[in-house]
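Appendix B. One record, verbatim.
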Amino acid sequence: MDQASGIGKNNQLPWHLPSDLKRFKGITMGHHLVMGRKTYESIGRSLPGRTTIVLSRDPDYCIESGFVVHTIQKALSLAEERGDDEVFVIGGGELFQETINIADRIYLTRVHSLTDCDTFFPDFDDREWTVAEISYHCVDDKNPFPHTLQILNRIPADS
């Protein structure tokens, strides 16, 4: 997300950061990716090496490779039934809003810039999360924005 929590414009990422994309591929490979219909259509296909689960309100919606479900609960149950121990919600904004309160980990890229966005990551209370990993990346010939890659783990309620 950018400095104003922006994450998208016209169903596309508003930046191209190869270091972020490499990280995304590395952490999601072999896992289930849960996404909304618009996010799926913006990608245009299921991503190799991962299982796609698309949430859609349309009972007739189907995809070539993967699953279509109609609730986040069904998406999570399906991934669990198929043996996945970590499921990745990858967008869009409505789905992030629906799942932020049940997530126990956030893989977050903070883009140190303001970009033109029409979709935003939901507000969350930093006090409910601990930073497990952090790495800063400067602008270079491939990455036009400085950014920080973080892993945030939710602090258990009984702590």
